[in-house]
Amino acid sequence: MLRSSIKYTTNLKTFSKSTIKCYSTEVSEENLLKTPLFDSHVALGATMVPFAGYSMPVLYKDQTHIQSHNWTRKNCGIFDVSHMLQHKINGPNTTKFLEKITPTDFHALKPYQNHLSVLLNKNGGVIDDTIITKHADDSFYIVTNAGCREKDIAFIKEELKNFPGGEQINHENFDGTLLAIQGPKSQEILSKFTTSNLKDLYFGNSRFIDLQGFNTDEKFHVSRGGYTGEDGFEISIPNNKVGVEFFNALLEYDEIVKPIGLAARDSLRLEAGMCLYGHELNDDVTPIEASLNWLVSKSRRGDSSTANFNGASKIIEQINNPKSVSYKRVGLTSKGPSPRHGNKIFSAEDPSKQVGIVCSGSPSPSAGGNVAQVFLDKPYNKTGTKVKVEIRGKLRDAEVAKMPFYPTSYYKSP
Known about the structure:
By secondary structure, the chain is of the alpha+beta class. Helix content is about 25%, strand content about 30%.
């Protein structure tokens, strides 16, 4: 297992570099970007912090992290995700191009279906994770991470340059208000502002809807899903005037709606077993090592005519020969001090032997105790395995657990 331990040491350095590159907080206050909702956050008494080059709300006045977390699980939380990078890409052979840089079968998607995917480098490592929505044949809407903005744009531009017919594909980025409306009462609140029947809009699907009461005939792209494990929607509003007015109008229903910041967004996604780029994912980690085999469409696991995406040979070998994968992303539970990003994990039988590393961890308001996502060597990554986590210079007991740590509540088609 020595080679794997070396790998973990390398990954720890890589995580640090990825985090700095994609989510650096080392930006002077005057150089931080602001979302269209910045003034609204300040007016609401938000604590603003540097995140991915933006000034973002981490908590709001009169709310603790745990209160914000639990509110979203029981009611409706509104998250400003306008810092995310939005793309439109279309033109001849756009589908083939996306199937070159991701392992997803976009031919199989119906119009207005979306899919979680990953942008892949030549070695099968993850450039970024992304949600890609098919609007029509060769026409797509994409959302990628804010902190990877420059890297993603450069990657797509370079891939288009080297793709046959890439000059005919139109790729553009756009900014605007992007809101995540999350929680069991999300449909109730969004339905107050639109004539669209949201009862037949299911998880993984999207459409354009009207917004009533904002003096506009525009329609706005809304998808059912999110980053919390709860039912919810993400709505893109390029018209920032409407976006700000809509955000403020949502908050008037304060008996069921509250603005929620980055602190709860992270603990919610962690309980749901969702990855965060720079922690569970980076340029050196393949989807298989990240336990995201399902992102590689089954129709794309054949010969070179279908498995023709970046890094396909390595990824398909890992799928077909699981023994070639020395470590995997798994869940971990514990009591006491919480595991955190970068903490080393050791064998319970031989505490001198490092067998993994923590990608991210947090106390769990919903499940109790602590939860973490980690990379663990085989065979230590089996559910129920006891391990030790080094926290503040001491080895603490932990156990490998299944994810998600808290049941998801997606609104799926019957």
